[in-house]
Specification:
Elements: E1 5-10, H1 16-27, E2 35-41, H2 46-58, E3 63-68, H3 74-81, E4 89-92, E5 98-99, H4 103-113, E6 119-127, E7 134-138, H5 144-150, E8 163-165, H6 166-171, H7 182-192, E9 197-208, H8 213-216, H9 220-235, H10 241-256, H11 259-270
Parallel strand pairs: 1-2, 1-4, 2-3, 6-9
Antiparallel strand pairs: 4-8, 5-9, 6-7, 6-8
Helix pairs in contact: 9-10
């Protein structure tokens, strides 16, 4: 199997126990990465430094730490992290999520089958407390054509699931500041460059959703921030004016409805139904 890197960003508000669970899921993989690149997005807590030090000692040479003097957000952290990855293939991971044990094996197999493939993701199962208690799922389109069409209205990838070619990311200008939509902004620029896309129709990552997620995604301030970010996406020329106003209209309604209704919309309509 090809060597590959895992790229993560870590910031001060992350819980050390979540990072432990994330790291353990990486160590349980049927195919192991030979490098974890962890961007320290500003100063961290003592507990987080302890986790990094612990794994650094137990697995010498595995973790490459990239400290940043101040917190600048996910986009800038990943922008700094991509060039630090030693391998052409990079797997993204969020430090509070958990990988299914065969995630990397399945994704690497797709790159081996298709040398022209540039980026592959998967579906996710979402949980609040433990991965055994799934509250929602987010399925994504599977083929290159379907993903590129879907991207005009909603993200064709679950960001924490993707594995991509470093050259394809850098060729599109790498991650750029676009609060709330660092991944969306990158996907459309990559697609405009003609990258080949694919998703695996299985949940290869268990994504942790905080109980306050629906609060954060509501209100007038959030909507204004969302609109500003999506305007940057629109400016790439990838989406039409009709698509832009359609998405903004829906987000306006979702952001301003009562919190409980917003939670229902996310769980039942936008992210799929809870599995039985």
């Amino acid at each position: 199997m090809t060597d590959f890197s895992v790229l993560m960003s870590l910031y001060i508000k992350e819980k050390p126990e979540y990072v432990e669970e994330c790291f353990q899921s990486l160590l349980r993989q049927t195919v192991q990465a030979n490098e974890w690149v962890v961007v320290e997005d500003g100063p961290l807590t003592d507990g987080l430094y302890e986790v990094l030090d612990k794994y650094g000692k137990e697995y010498p040479g595995l973790i490459k730490r990239v400290p940043r003097p101040v917190n600048q957000g996910l986009g800038m952290a990943l922008q700094a992290g991509v060039p630090e990855c030693s391998n052409e293939l990079i797997a993204r991971m969020d430090t509070d999520d958990i990988c299914r044990e065969d995630r990397f094996e399945k994704q690497l197999a797709e790159f081996e089958k298709d040398p022209d493939l540039d980026i592959i993701g998967s579906c996710i199962d979402e949980f609040e407390d433990t991965p055994e208690d799934i509250v929602a799922s987010r399925n994504v389109p599977l083929t290159d054509e379907e993903i590129k069409k879907y991207q005009k209205r909603r993200d064709g990838f679950n960001h924490m699931t993707v594995m991509y070619k470093k050259s394809a990311v850098l060729g599109a200008g790498n991650y750029q500041p676009c609060p709330l939509m660092e991944d969306t902004y990158l996907w459309v620029r990559m697609m405009k460059n003609g990258v080949k896309c694919k998703n695996i129709g299985e949940p290869l990552v268990y994504a942790r959703i905080g109980k306050d997620m629906f609060n954060r995604r509501g209100g007038w301030a959030y909507f204004k921030k969302y609109k500003a970010a999506f305007k940057m996406v629109y400016a790439t020329g990838y989406i039409s004016r009709f698509d832009y106003f359609s998405v903004i209209s829906v987000q306006f309604i979702v952001a301003l409805v009562p919190r409980k209704l917003r939670g229902w919309i996310f769980k039942k309509m936008l992210h799929g139904k809870k599995k039985s």
